[in-house]
Amino acid sequence: MTEEALTETVPPIRDWPALDLTGVDFDPVLTELMREGPVTRIRLPDGEGWAWLVTRHDDVRTVTDDPRFSREVVMDRPVTPPAPHFIPQRGAIGFLDPPDHTRLRGSVAAAFTAKGVERVRERSRRMLDELVEELLQDGPPADLTAAVLSPFPIAVVCELMGVPAADRHAMHTWTQLILSSSHGAKVSEKAQHDMGAYFADLIGRREGSSGEDVTSLLGAAVGRAEITLEEAVGLAALVQIGGEAVTSNSTQMFHLLLTRPELAERLRDEPEIRPRAIDELLRYIPHRNAAGPPRIAREDVEISGVRIRAGDPVHVSYLAANRDPEVFPDPETIDFLRAPNPHVSFGFGPHYCPGGMLARLESELLVDALLDGVPGLKLAVPPDRVPPFRKGALIRGPEALPVTW
Asked: The pTM is what?
């Protein structure tokens, strides 16, 4: 495309409010933005100014994998953030670019390989079996979220992290306060501080460790002076929070399966399709509200015929990319046999979520344990009586999921 052909008439700025959506309702504002064009401009409810929003699948992959778009530069620019308590922290892995980002991720890479994830598989299965056994012993009705869907991902990520069982409740409380804006920015900041202090102490005590969990790997890397303690703490917090995000993903997945019982029944009848079905559910479920952290263009870049100027902030929407009809035919339909399925639910590029493989493992274990181990599992109330989704949460999910069997 020639320079003269680039769009110089910039699109209007659209306000994108933070909506508290329920179920698998897709954000109506995002739907409008997708219709307006592959590259639009938005103003989020908090912070300053406007930002570009990129929604097409190929463009999202380009922006997230192109060094001309920087997370690190965000530290030096006022931006319109994805949440009122969004506070970029200098040196945190989420706001580093390669090579520093690559160096820091490399310190814990072993925990997220296939071998590293397999290390926690059997322990995870045993913990899940115990939770399901307790559920059955207590009898119906029950809150599936409180009984299984919340404690299981927390236990798994703490196992991966090397957080002792006695500290898991505190870790969960901090994470929920960090991920929600409903308690105010000061409460979220204090939770971030408390979690950071905890990890600083734990990692410091594991310097020189030969353990395979994340905090031991970080302690060893700090001991070898490959990373600083501050960098290690930031990475530990990011992994912990990201690991707990699976809680909301899981509750939303089972909310969908139980409010559309024909989907759950098919997975009971055809267990061989479950891995592909879970990938399709990960594509389809709108797991987060609004956009993620922004990037800053380091130079002028053309995206789908639109010129993004050096210094402009850019958001991508993974949710929109997962509904791109050019990549996913009939994207509003749940197709358990969809192939290929190149969804970007775990991101793309250098900042791809390291816990993607672990999240898939947890989802597969949950589907197997609950659909096979709890015959007749179904909602205990009509679908329209299921408790509402949490308000002010970055990651969507119902407050409770009442079930019987």
From this structure: 0.90
